[in-house]
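Fill in residues.
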């Protein structure tokens, strides 16, 4: 994100609202938090703040944000520090995240990729170097 990274919105302050009778399509960039009560079809939603998808909302777009809370329906790819799939929420797609919360009564179908972990598989023994002899037991 190439816009103000140093300013973070208050967690309860919503700067952009897509209302229940509104449909949005395209690219949305904002320095603050975004709430969807309506529909988003296609495009990218990008903010250093939070994205809230309420119970009646339907969002089919990629999201890059600090925290994404889903109580409605979402389809796409989310890249965030934290994703919360709340009771009654439905999510289809790919989530790239550091922290993931799944409430009872939520539906998730897709791929969850936890970020910030080691790329190596810690339970596998190290591979021998090229040409190194392996001792027989």
């Amino acid at each position: 994100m190439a816009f103000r990274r140093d300013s973070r919105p208050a967690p309860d302050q919503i700067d952009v609202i897509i209302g229940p009778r509104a449909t949005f399509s395209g690219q949305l960039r904002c320095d603050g938090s975004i709430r969807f009560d309506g529909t988003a079809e296609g495009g990218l939603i990008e903010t250093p703040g939070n994205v809230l998808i309420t119970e009646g909302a339907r969002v089919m777009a990629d999201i890059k944000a600090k925290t994404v809370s889903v109580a409605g329906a979402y389809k796409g790819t989310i890249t965030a520090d934290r994703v919360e799939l709340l009771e009654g929420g439905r999510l289809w797609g790919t989530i790239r995240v550091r922290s993931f919360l799944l409430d009872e009564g939520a539906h998730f179908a897709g791929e969850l990729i936890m970020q910030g972990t080691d790329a190596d598989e810690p339970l596998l023994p190290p591979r021998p170097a090229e040409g190194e002899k392996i001792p027989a037991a």
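The chain is about 0% helix and 55% strand.
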